[in-house]
Amino acid sequence: MRKLRTNAGDKVILDAGEVALASIHNTKYRIPLDHPVLNDHGAFYPKALPHQLMFELTFAPVADIIIYSDVTMVPNYTITNLELEYQCISSDHLAEQARASYKSEKGFFYENIPFYKTFTISKPNDSVINEHINVPRRSMTGILCLFTEAHMAGTRDSEKLVNPDIKSISINVDVIPNRLYSKGMVPSDAWENIKKRMGGSGSLKEKEFYTGNKYALWIDLRTFPDNEIHGGGLTLNNTRDGVKLEIRRKVGGSGNMTCHMFVVADALMEVMNSNLKSILY
Question: Cα-atom radius of gyration of the chain, to the nearest Å?
Answer without folding.
Answer: 23
